[in-house]
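Issue 218. Parser rejects a valid record. Input:
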Amino acid sequence: MSGSSYMSQLGKKWGLRAPKQLYRMLKLHRTSFDTILDNMFNALDEVNGLFTFPTIAAVARMKPELVQRIEKEGHEVASHGYNHVRYPTISADAREQDLLLSLQIFKKLGIKISGFRAPYDNYTDDMPDLLEKTGLIWDGGFGYRPEHREKTHFFHADIDGQESSVTYIPLNIWSDDYMIDRMGMGPEIMSKVLKREVAKAAPTGGVIMFDLHPVRMGQRKYVGCLRNVIEHANSIGAWCTTPTEAVKYWNTHSTWKGDSKFCLLLTGDIDNWVFSDYLRRILWKRMTR
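Output the parser choked on:
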């Protein structure tokens, strides 16, 4: 497809914002994902922090060595679906096929998957019923719905009058794209906002989860924010771990590991490895409507 066709398709999606969005993503993808992961792992290692990467399975299968590296480094990979599609725009059967296919792909790659986050944090009311069929332990996107956002602890959905086996985690509104793209924040202000949110969570004795996309947070400009927020969280008694470890421990002990007062979960979705992946994703969504 020609460059003019790309611009035409993107223009339909983003309107007058299309050139700015294109340029923004192009700049981010000038940094290779190998470097992004290097930057993140180095920053996290310095403060004994763990990170979880909900990843699109179609993207994971393009570079399995990268998702395998995440797991080898002691961090967690979760499912972000097979295709980066808004689940409310497709049928219930298509949602189920997308999620189950993602789990099949990760299994073939030798990646253990215990958690899920839907693309765009978009869920239908029946998604808890689907998740019950999967054997997954946790979900990190349903808790972004307005009625759950202010929760301070893990919760369970009602499935035909029974408590779900899947544990749901409230998701904080302060994401990297919200802070950087919409609010225009620099790294210093971002660190202050994240530390403020962590400080608010500490007295609850509960859990706080952020969605901080690696494509932004792994940039040299922003990666220090991860180190800053974990340092601050550690200083006030947080346990910074993976959702799987946190959910298993809490569901068994009803408390946090060691002397921790609350739990910090750092997560960030991987939607594409390179700029061309991003373009293909946008165009695929346009052409399938």
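Fixed in the parser; the record now loads. Residues 129 and 160 are 9 Å apart (CA to CA).
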